[in-house]
Amino acid sequence: MEIVKAYAKLNLILNVKGKRADGYHEIETVFQAIDLYDKVIVDETDSPEDVMVFLPSGKYHPDIPNEKNLAFRALKCAKEAFDMKTKRYSVSIEKNIPLAGGLGGGSADAAAVLTALCKLWGGEKDLDKMFEIAAALGSDVPFCLASQNGHPCAIGRARGEKLEYIEAVKGRVDLFQSEVCIKDKTKAVYSSLIPADYLIQYDVAGFRKAKTLEEKIGFMGNHLKPALERLTGIKRDEMLCGAGPTYFRFDENGEYETITK
Question: Which of the chain's ends, N or C, has fewer CB atoms near its CB within 10 Å?
Fold first, then answer.
């Protein structure tokens, strides 16, 4: 049995570069993991089928069919890639990261399944191959996998899946939930972008050179924020997590601490 902490992520910077030929947007983002996490437990089982459950101890209990659950898809993809199709596993998730909030909870759970399987299968199973699976599953999954394996801060490029590890930002944050419900939220937010939203790029190089948290905060920003504001009519001063609708603010007394190692 393996137990993995599936950390939530923040986007300290999210630059949109433009739309790609494949329909996705080219981005440059600074990911940072925080100590809000789902607990993911993976173990072999005697059940005739793979099993996926959300534990009652979690804060959230989503009703998601297995075929639409990213963590379950991660299990199936890894078993296929490593020729482990005959083995059966149970995946139990204590869900504490808000659902569809821009914090990467589903991606973190999928990555945690890959991390757990890598440990269960031993050193001969290549973590690099797990990163290839992660990139195929979703744009945020590779960073979530990295954050569970010693790299809690990174620059993500292309769709966000091409990572450059950088020094983590030390600090505490508070999260703010915006009570809005948007169908296919991420797609809707990106579809609502206009060129003016990303005409001026946030300075990632300046962010990296900044020495103090206060200096780094001055470089932070998210090009998706105005698009979300147009969709919801809600404007907030805090920084936006991913495509939202969760917001965050650094505060020395904040509820959550950034992961630094």
Answer: C
For the chain, give every domain's residue range: 2-165, 172-257
Q: For the range 229-234, what are the long-range contacts, defined as Cβ-Cβ under 8 Å and sequence gap of 24 or more?
A: 230/192, 231/182, 231/188, 231/189, 231/192, 232/178, 232/180, 232/182, 234/178, 234/180
- Report yes or no: 217 and 175 within 8 Å, Cβ to Cβ: no
* Residues constituting the chain: 261
The whole-number average pLDDT for the span 244-257 is 96
Residue 81 has pLDDT above 70, yes or no: yes
Place of tokens 């609708």: 245
Q: Give yes or no for residue 168 having a pLDDT over 80.
A: yes
In CATH, what class is 2-165? alpha beta
User: What sign does the dihedral 175-170-226-190 (CA atoms) show?
Assistant: negative
123 pLDDT higher than 80:
no
Q: Which residues are catalytic?
A: 9, 140
Its pTM surpasses 0.85: yes
> Is the omega angle on the peptide bond into residue 56 within 30 degrees of 0, that is, cis?
no
What's the rounded Cα separation, in Å, for the pair 40 and 6? 7
Residue 257's H or E segment, with its range, is: strand 256-257
Query: Across all residues in the chain, what is the average pLDDT?
Result: 94
pLDDT of residue 126: 84
Strand pairing of 51-54 and 25-44? Answer: unpaired
Angle at which helix 127-137 crosses helix 105-121, to 10 degrees, equals 150
Which sign does the torsion angle of CA 62, 65, 66, 67 carry?
negative
